[in-house]
Amino acid sequence: MVKSLERENIRKMRGLTFRCSASCCEDSQASMQQVHQCIERFHAPLAQAQALVTNELEKFQDRLARCTMHCNDKAKDSIDAGSKELQVKQQLDSCVTKCVDDHMHLIPTMTKKMKESLSSIGK
User: Sorted alphabetically, which PANTHER family does this protein's record hold (predicted)?
Assistant: First the structure.
């Protein structure tokens, strides 16, 4: 998913950013500050796009981590209640597998949302 976003969206934006930034440097009449502002103006959409992807991935990872922490808490409670270690390990494995499966189903929607957001950046 990340490779697809990078290849189809971010990379195109990065190429446009560099080409436009290079054109800023071709204005021999512009001051150093004007060139810098021109470059920053073209870099802003790329930075916004990268921040969007980073933020969405962090939220996804946080949700998955919270789910697995819940599994760990349940396992600890079972151990404290006297359950056998093998049984608790199986419960933990099952719970973590369910977390991963549930979160895998979120990836297509998350990807679609990010692609829609990325396509609107810089327009």
Answer: PROTEIN FAM136A
